[in-house]
Automatic annotation (TrEMBL):
Cellular compartments annotated: Membrane
Originating species: Streptomyces fimbriatus
Residue ranges the record marks as coiled coil: none
Keyword Oxidoreductase: no
Database matches in PANTHER family: SULFATE TRANSPORTER (PTHR11814)
InterPro entries (alphabetical): SLC26A/SulP_dom (IPR011547), SLC26A/SulP_fam (IPR001902), STAS_dom_sf (IPR036513)
Transmembrane portions of the chain: 81-105, 112-135, 165-182, 194-216, 236-258, 279-301, 321-350, 371-396
Comp. bias intervals (Basic and acidic residues): 489-502
Name of the molecule in the record: SulP family inorganic anion transporter
Amino acid sequence: MTMLSKFPYLRQDLLASIVVFLVAVPLCVGVAVASGVPAEVGLVTGIVGGLVTGLMRGSSLQVSGPAAGMTVLVFEAVSEFGVATLGVIVLIAGLLQLAMGFLGIGRWFRAISVSVVEGMLCGIGLVIIAGQLYAAAGMKAPETGIGKILGLPGAFADALGSTEALASLATGMGTIAVIVLWRKTPKGVRAVPGALAAVILATVASSAFSLPVATVQVEGLLGVIQPPGAEAFGELVSPAVWGTIAAFALIASAESLFSAAAVDRLHDGPRTEYNKEMIAQGAGNTVCGLLGALPLTAVIVRSSANVNAGAKTKASRVLHGVWLLLFAAAMPWALALIPLPALAGILVHAGWKLIPFRQTAALWRGHRGEALILVVTAVSIVVVNMFEGVLIGLALSVVKTAWQASHAKLEVIDKGAGPIQVHLSGNATFLRLPRILDTLEALPEDRPVELDLSGVHHLDHACRTALENWAERHSAAGTAPVKVTEGAKATRPENEKPVTAV
């Protein structure tokens, strides 16, 4: 049996793993620095994400590593408790994730609205593009998503007055141009992913022309691996530490499973097994904690790059961990040849691919409420952060669903003589109660009323009580009691009697 017959997608996965590795390097380094720890600590987390989480079952094409969404929380934890305690926090958070996975909590994330997922992709894409445009010009990006976007005009003006910034920006833009145009090359050439070809060309060009651009700088890994000691475990007596542990576990789990839902929409392969993915994330964080590294989550930018590069199995994400280990531990000099603006260019292109232009247009034509949820989610992620932005989108989605589920139609027929006929149909809930009562209370008090509820599918307790009170008041005015017809299909709380008029 040949190697290709045993691993039919080896070539696709191998090439995709190199692209993911190139995307992962700047993210691992950048997240670590922003979190207040050495750059190499981020690489350790990326390696664990590939070699530990990547080997486990769950989401086959999703890639894990240090995430920008955890940066603020990690920075605050390091500032308050110290780097030594970070390992303990990540370790216990990983064990909590394992427990949640074994208890079956992960499957509840399958209920995420499609509009929220698309909005998450859009928001993350916008933040990635804005932030990496600064990196492409060799500048430091503002901390917040909205700050990144609003600061772009000023940054561009500054770049025009700097030879180094223009050279760096040209390298980044050239990388994007190669990736975009690569798809127009002959089929045999396209066997090499455009992102890989672009980085190779950018590296050759920057070396050949001695361009004044920054390159990746990484020292050895062994010096930053610090397993937590007895003193660090002693910090567990503090309630504040446990609050941070809970936040790490919940936010890392939510981001990973939100990402899994999004990645499933990017490919036609096997769907995510959410509980197993939760276990895989927990195992990864447990190992990261033992090594004193950053927490890991699934990262949509790396995952989408993996899908777009043609990955077919989890081999690509495992191999990306191998490349991180090989280059960071044994060949850091090779990473130092890669221009940072070229890696920024890859991330800008990856961010652009995350923005769902066609899906948004289709939603606007057919379901404007869903399109609004998508836009609000995206804007919230840009203005606040990913986790809270997704929560805002989910809350809006729940409100919209509740409003639609409470749709009720009220029809009044008054023939001028005899009783007034009122037909109520649909789902009568407290959300529609004010409009229902306004209509009923406006009916003449000296006329008998026939209230037909046979078209009601669901009548909640608030509506039922309000209708009974209205019927009692109307009948007390000296007219005939309100006649109520209630269909057998109308659902009501257990042990609750039908609506009656006194």
